[in-house]
């Protein structure tokens, strides 16, 4: 019999207390620089866009600016497009895909939409290549009133005045091998639950909204991304990560009930991308390109069907 995997912190069947969370935090190591990888690239965009610091995260002696990049020619008569990346800091192509879109493709939408791009919602987690913030809280289950995540609360506050003006919100994510080796086992240990392996889908897929799935919108994105990288097939149960596949490369979640990032506006068109950077069939650049293709397809579809 294969023994049940168990995370090295905590006691099986018991949720973590503060001592376990501190033990987890002590294991986190800084691997890369938000200042070098994100802030420096955003600074180079200042001549073309309006850049603002919508918040500042302070964790111990570390301080991180929370940056938003907006169209300089903002026009209240135009629809608004919101792009978010790095809600889970370890999901690298979400951050770099958002920046690549700004650098290479945003200009074609000038005068057609208002762009609001938040390339890295969770800078501390970006540096640690982790899913959680330092409090062992997942920002992408925390987009709700009285959020336990400072990252989520700041984004909610910034977006609040635009909540009813956003036409498209696309949230850029990844699914990685470390989901199964680190993050899901850590989640199970934190919550005192058994770990149940779900498998890692090999390829790109989308997570739509159960309450408002917009299937044509989702399929337009899949068709565009399919020109860049492969789409994840369903497993033997016709599921992807435990959810039924509702169309080619698409599953749905109840976004608001789960406190997920695409629930923060009343946008007609909402989706979450998921690429698979550990696939032998994809490179890191392909993953970035897939995120860009998804953003462009989302905007193009919305403009054609608004």
UniProtKB/TrEMBL annotation:
GO molecular function: hydrolase activity, acting on ester bonds; metallocarboxypeptidase activity; zinc ion binding
Transmembrane segments: none
InterPro entries in UniProt: AstE_AspA_cat, Peptidase_M14
Protein name (Swiss-Prot/TrEMBL): Putative deacylase
Superkingdom field: Bacteria
CDD domains according to UniProt: M14_REP34-like
Family the UniProt entry places it in: Belongs to the peptidase M14 family.
GO BP, sorted A to Z: proteolysis
Cofactor dependency: Zn(2+)
Keyword S-adenosyl-L-methionine attributed: no
Organism listed in the record: Lysobacter dokdonensis DS-58
Keywords, in A-Z order: Hydrolase, Metal-binding, Zinc
Domain Peptidase M14, first and last residues per copy: 30-306
Coiled-coil segments: none
